[in-house]
Amino acid sequence: MFLTILIWAVVLTLGSSQSVNDCPAAIPKDTHLQVHGGLCYQFVLTPHKTHTDAKKACEANGGTLAIVSSKAIQDYIYDQVLHTYKSAYGKFWIGLDDIATEDAFVWEDGSAFSYENFAPGQGSQNTSLAGHVTHPNEDCVLIDASDHGRWHDYPCDRSSFLFVTTVEAHSYICQYAPAGITQAPATTIIFVT
């Protein structure tokens, strides 16, 4: 006589393989949208925008400029800029600034500022030997692909030199939370004889 025991187990499978279809509906599902580390990243190469306008564009779709809070995120973004988008000389706004208080950099989403990748003489290293800030009007941060992906602080909207004013418009990277996590129940049947 065979004894058959039927065991049913319900296993919830979390959507570990997210796709661009999980990104917010308002974002175009094209080659400039990618998913990494559970977040959606939109690489906007054109049209170039000032930091202020880039920030507004990301917010209009429910996101922020990219929060590069770790070396892993930095490496991912830099790799995409170089290899996927072939932008070895591009500059991309990210969600970091010191607009409120000079030399007190904050992420747009309020997360802790612990990782940084500033080039020498930029950002928090932007002081003279006497301790004075050397670029007080450069409050917004971008990733500069031509400088190995290091960060540079620039004027957020316009820069002036002598009598020439230039609009600081660059590419940018938006970051979005996925629209939802897919959960699919699976049934496992085990036969023991």
From TrEMBL:
It comes from the Eukaryota. Residues 36-158 form the C-type lectin domain. Keywords: Signal. Residues 1-17 form the signal peptide. InterPro entries: C-type_lectin-like, C-type_lectin-like/link_sf, Ca-Dep_Lectins_ImmuneDev, CTDL_fold. Pfam families: Lectin_C. PROSITE patterns: C_TYPE_LECTIN_2. The keyword Signal applies. This is C-type lectin domain-containing protein.
